[in-house]
């Protein structure tokens, strides 16, 4: 255990309530608020930007009154967040760490298997339509034959607006009412409209575990093999499946690689390091990325190195010196880390639209003596926190800008032509193939600037993050 963390941990143990005296009584709000404060006071990346944390109120006489001034752990946690709207958009607290662990480690949550993009209807700034962007494999949606690119104008018969899409789509059971996109026979989009087609499908969300290795393809490009991988989350339990995908690429002598991360909101830093190692292979033991903690935890700063193995298994690497990465505004965290870290070593061509802009990593904080041990967590409640605790940078100490990573080739998904993921005519993949062939791009459609409305609807409760394991901070 690193020296700085040990000193802070001893302080925490000295100041914390005695775990030996726990009984079966449920934890009070004050108890949980106390855990929240002490955990944030040690680990929070922006500790010294928050006055209540910087001054360590736990050592003051009015500490209990301070804790009791907040009626819930959620509101108390929120009071400790630094500039929620502009800086820390991503820390969160949960009252169910079991569900949190299932999502972070194995990709398990409630889902019907659909993800959406949302757009304003042509000529409107209130009415909205949804497009299915992903139908997850082996899900209820896939069993009902739903397909990427289908348009929804209403849910349970209620027309979609900017104000109701969250409440309608976050239900566990609903009926989708479908429509067609009518371009009115003209190339302009100002006279287009969404036309209901009187078809519908009812869906229910169930417990679902997503294999993030969504799709792989081998495509012949002028006599050379291109490997295509749609990868939707950096989920540790599926690292073997990711490695198996690269075994297929190896066996087919893939000379070009397209990573489709357009719907990947992030995940495990370790999984991202493995993916970077699979793409390359010639940089074994070199620095892939670094984690930098708050001023009190600098001795815990961590380096992630390219590797040729994991868990005793050889990594299937391609030794490439160039890779194409497809992105959108939904690409975040570990997805951005892949681009930022690899571009220090090889040519990375980013195609699509700008990414989210998130370089911070989080860790699960439990109400346990060392705040990292799930097995020793306080049994009287299931609260845990996932605060930002570190900044990720590449080997040159460059972090992802808060405005996101800008593509080398901009292609924004067109509601009139989503295409089939992995098909050579799908617009983003087609742009990569055109760049390989040196033929350039076709002219953009008239709808190219119609970016999706930003929503949280596609995200399960614990996505949109980059997380690390306790071993990385000990």
Biggest β-sheet description: 6 strands, antiparallel
- State the end-to-end distance: 5 Å
CATH class of the largest domain: Alpha Beta
Which regions are unreliable across 5 or more consecutive residues at pLDDT < 50? 1-22, 459-463
Report the structural category.
alpha+beta
The share of residues in extended strands comes to 25-35%
CATH architectural designation of the largest domain: Alpha-Beta Complex
Overall domain count: 2
**Number of H/I helices:** 12
- Fraction in helix: 10-25%
The Cα radius of gyration reads: 24 Å
Average pLDDT metric: 90
Protein name: S41 family peptidase
Signal peptide: 1-19
Pfam family, one: Peptidase_S41
GO molecular function: endopeptidase activity; serine-type peptidase activity
Task: Write the topology of this structure.
Blueprint: H1 3-15, H2 29-43, H3 51-54, H4 63-68, H5 73-79, E1 92-94, H6 97-106, E2 108-111, E3 114-120, E4 128-135, H7 140-143, E5 151-155, E6 158-159, H8 165-169, E7 173-182, E8 193-204, E9 206-209, E10 213-221, E11 224-231, H9 239-251, E12 256-260, E13 267-268, H10 269-279, E14 287-293, E15 302-305, E16 309-310, E17 313-314, E18 322-327, H11 334-342, E19 347-352, E20 360-362, E21 365-366, E22 384-386, E23 388-393, E24 409-410, H12 427-437, E25 466-467
Parallel strand pairs: 11-12, 12-18, 13-25, 18-19, 19-24
Antiparallel strand pairs: 1-22, 2-9, 3-4, 4-5, 5-6, 5-7, 7-8, 10-11, 14-15, 14-23, 16-17, 20-23, 21-22
Helix pairs in contact: 9-10, 10-11
């Amino acid at each position: 255990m690193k020296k700085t963390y040990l000193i802070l941990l001893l302080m925490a143990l000295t100041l914390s309530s005695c775990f030996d005296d726990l009984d079966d009584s449920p934890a009070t709000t004050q108890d949980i608020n106390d855990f929240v404060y002490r955990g944030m006071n040690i680990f929070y990346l922006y500790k010294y930007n928050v006055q209540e944390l910087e001054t360590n109120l736990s050592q003051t006489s009015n500490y209990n009154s301070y804790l009791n001034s907040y009626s819930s752990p959620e509101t108390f946690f929120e009071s400790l967040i630094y500039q929620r709207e502009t800086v820390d958009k991503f820390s969160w607290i949960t009252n169910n760490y079991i569900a949190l662990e299932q999502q972070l480690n194995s990709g398990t949550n409630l889902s019907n298997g659909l993800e959406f993009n949302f757009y304003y209807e042509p000529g409107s700034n209130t009415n909205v339509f949804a497009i299915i962007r992903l139908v997850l494999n082996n899900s209820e949606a896939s069993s009902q034959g739903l397909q990427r690119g289908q348009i929804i104008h209403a849910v349970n018969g209620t027309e979609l607006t900017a104000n109701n899409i969250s409440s309608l789509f976050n239900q566990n059971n609903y009926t989708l009412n479908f429509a067609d996109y009518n371009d009115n026979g003209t190339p302009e989009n100002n006279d287009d409209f969404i036309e209901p087609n009187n078809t519908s499908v009812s869906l229910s969300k169930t417990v679902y575990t997503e294999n993030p290795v969504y799709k792989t393809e081998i495509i012949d490009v002028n006599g050379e093999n291109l490997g295509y991988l749609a990868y939707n989350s950096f989920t540790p339990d599926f690292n073997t499946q990711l490695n198996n995908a690269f075994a297929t690429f190896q066996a087919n002598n893939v000379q070009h690689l397209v990573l489709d991360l357009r719907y990947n909101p992030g995940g495990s830093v370790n999984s991202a390091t493995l993916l970077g190692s699979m793409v390359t292979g010639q940089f074994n033991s070199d620095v892939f990325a670094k984690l930098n903690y708050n001023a009190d935890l600098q001795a815990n700063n961590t380096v992630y190195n390219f590797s040729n193995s994991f868990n005793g298994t050889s990594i299937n690497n391609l030794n490439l010196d160039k890779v194409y990465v497809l992105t959108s505004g939904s690409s975040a965290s570990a997805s951005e880390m892949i681009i930022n870290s690899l571009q220090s070593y090889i040519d990375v061509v980013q195609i699509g639209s700008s990414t989210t802009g998130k370089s911070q990593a989080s860790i699960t904080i439990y109400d346990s003596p060392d705040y990292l041990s799930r097995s020793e967590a306080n049994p009287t409640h299931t609260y845990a926190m996932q605060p930002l605790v570190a900044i990720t940078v590449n080997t040159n100490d460059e972090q992802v800008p808060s405005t996101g990573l800008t593509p080398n080739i901009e292609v924004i998904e067109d509601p009139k032509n989503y295409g089939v993921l992995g098909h050579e005519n799908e617009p983003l993949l087609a742009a990569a193939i055109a760049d390989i062939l040196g033929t350039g791009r076709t002219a953009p459609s008239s709808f190219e600037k119609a970016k999706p409305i930003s929503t949280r609807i596609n995200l399960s409760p614990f996505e949109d993050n980059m997380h690390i394991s306790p071993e990385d901070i000990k």
